[in-house]
Amino acid sequence: xxxxxxxxxxxxxADADGRAIPVTLVQAGPCRVLRIKSLQSDGYHALQIGFEExxxxxxxxxxxxxxxELERSATSQKNKKSAGxxxxxxxxxxxxEIRFSVDPVGHEVGNILTVDLFDGKKFVDVIGVTKGRGxxxxxxxxxxxxxxxxxxxxxxxxxxxxxxQNTYPGRVHPGQKMSGRFGVDRVTVxxxxxxxxxxxxxxMLIRGAxxxxxxxxxxVRFPKEPPxxxx
Length: 231
Prior knowledge:
Layout: E1 2-14, E2 20-28, E3 31-37, E4 45-53, H1 61-65, H2 68-75, H3 80-84, E5 92-100, E6 112-113, E7 123-129, E8 134-136, H4 138-141, E9 180-182, E10 186-198, E11 203-207, E12 217-221
Antiparallel strand pairs: 1-2, 1-12, 2-11, 3-4, 3-6, 4-5, 7-10, 7-12, 8-9, 10-11
């Protein structure tokens, strides 16, 4: 199960033994179930969840259509004026889809998902997009050692070095580590320890670092496999 959130930043907390534990604060949820896909109608089982609200005047027609089903259920009530003013009928800024191998029983359109889902969990997986470093050299991108700092090396101490071949094969093999764009990659950090959760503030304290900048969008999910220490 997933939960969308934003990375707040890092801090440290004390455990029961008084040791300082580095943790990352993630404001996860609340997320709203926008649509339920089934095998009969869509060919697979999935949930579409939305995170953060977007003003209706700034939303596209497609984004407004994502909450059309919620609006119909709200306007069917007797007091349409109060139902139309409900916050739950606004479009979502971020929408993601969660696939399931079986029918997700117990979920309905309009349900709110909070950090209560992870109550009792010891480990989580965090998915995020790493910070963009721009065009980086091989020393920063691939941790190369650089050239020798001797008199024979002039103005190329951080250069890549030779990548060519001899007469045979006479070409550069694909996948050679070179300079290039660094960062902005989707990364999954698995089996991070969930230190604690704050249900009132929708905060999750996850031990260690997670990918992305402060304020970046992340997805927190149940671990697919337990850590090796728990196997």
